[in-house]
Write a structure and sequence with these properties.
Shape: elongated
Number of strands: 14
Number of helices: 11
Family: Belongs to the ABC transporter superfamily.
Order of helices and strands: EEEHEEHEHHHEHEHEEHEHEEHEH
Keywords: ATP-binding, Nucleotide-binding, Transport
Helix content: 25-40%
Bound molecules: adenosine-5'-triphosphate
Pfam family, one: ABC_tran
Protein name: ATP-binding protein of ABC transporter
CATH superfamily of the largest domain: P-loop containing nucleotide triphosphate hydrolases
CATH class of the largest domain: Alpha Beta
GO molecular function: ATP binding; ATP hydrolysis activity
CATH topology of the largest domain: Rossmann fold
Distance between the termini: 50 Å
Length: 317
């Protein structure tokens, strides 16, 4: 339903996004994730036909976002970071205006409006001027304007920013309720949030695609975290470092002949038994061995760590 190929946006000498390629299938909810400045807004604006890309192509339901921008705009609902609301209008008048603008025929408008107000939990605010609404309700109106014309594709740019926990929950379940029926891209910089709403994520960092994967698989990519407390005559750090399947080892604390060590295994390598055997072989004693999955936040931070400069680009000392 959405096909992005080699999409690049250049701002002067800098590329805000570079060679992005991904697809979103019909009925899928895709989490679009990345830290601030990763290029999420730029990508969504291009997909919404709100700005042309410097290079590459993007198609929505087969229509090219650049060459067939009008056809694309009719088929998408777009919620930008700052929703385009008219503060003096009532919710109902505004949604009716948007429906007309988006080409909903007059006869269909009352039903589209009623359905949208209901779906977005806005029935009791229909006659309220937008300027009197709380942030959460404004966000609902923003979502409502994106779906009032019943588009097959919905693009939501950070729809949950600034909401309180209850509003967050409501907006998330609203987005979830679109699954299967609509194709949705929903951007965020919080992986745990995206994982609650979408089955698959695209992760961007500094304008480049880092990964596109099922959220479930992302969790498994992180390997395991171990924390062990060991005593003995010999510091076990070196021998643990050379163990098969180890990604990193760190000394957390040392008091006398006791060490507290944290260790991360490579993706899907369960090495608890090997750790215990190694300590025993070198005559040490294991007082504690704990195993955890890294949190989604840790995985996200690892995947989006700043990209180091090439040696040739490093400033001279
Ligand atoms: N009109 C513009 N002119 C120049 N640079 C821009 C412009 N718009 C965005 N950028 C730059 O492009 C990069 C990507 O910005 P973008 O807003 O797409 O990222 P983002 O992932 O949406 O970030 P955020 O989460 O902060 O909204 C940033 O470095 C930004 O400063």
């Amino acid at each position: 339903m959405i096909e992005v190929e080699q999409l690049t946006q250049q701002y002067g000498a800098r590329a805000a996004i570079q060679d992005l390629t991904f697809r979103v299938e019909a009925g899928e909810i895709l989490g679009f994730l990345g830290p601030n400045g990763a290029g999420k807004t730029t990508t969504l604006r291009i997909l919404a036909a709100a700005q042309p890309a410097s290079r590459g192509t993007a198609r929505i339901a087969g229509w090219d976002v650049h060459r067939q921008a009008q056809a694309v705009r009719q088929r998408i609902g777009y919620l930008p970071e700052i929703p385009p609301l008219y503060p003096e209008m009532t919710v109902q008048a505004y949604l009716s205006f948007v429906a007309r603008l988006k080409g909903v025929v007059a006869g269909d408008r009352p039903q589209r409006l009623a359905e949208t107000l209901q779906r977005c939990g806005l029935n009791d605010r229909a006659q309220t001027p937008i300027r009197k609404l709380s942030k959460g309700y404004r966000q609902r109106v923003g979502l409502a304007q994106a779906i009032v014309h019943d588009p097959p594709v919905i693009l939501l740019d950070e729809p949950t920013v600034g909401l309180d926990p209850r509003q967050l929950q409501e907006v998330r379940s609203l987005i979830r309720s679109l699954a299967g029926e609509k194709t949705v891209i929903f951007s965020s910089h919080i992986l745990s949030e995206v994982s609650q709403v979408s089955d698959r994520v695209v992760i961007l960092n500094q304008g480049r695609l880092v990964t596109t994967t099922a959220t479930r698989e992302l969790l498994q990519q992180g390997g395991w975290h171990y924390r062990l407390e060991v005593s003995g005559d010999r510091n076990p750090l070196a021998v643990l470092q050379s163990l098969d399947g180890v990604q990193s080892v760190q000394m957390q604390a040392q008091t006398g002949d006791r060490w507290i060590i944290s260790l991360t295994s490579q993706a899907d390598q369960e090495i608890g038994a090997a750790i215990a055997a190694t300590i025993q072989q070198q005559g040490g004693q294991l007082w504690e061995l704990r195993r955890d999955r890294p949190s989604l936040e840790e995985i996200f931070l690892r995947l989006t760590a700043p990209v180091p400069l090439n040696p040739s680009e490093e400033p001279a000392e």
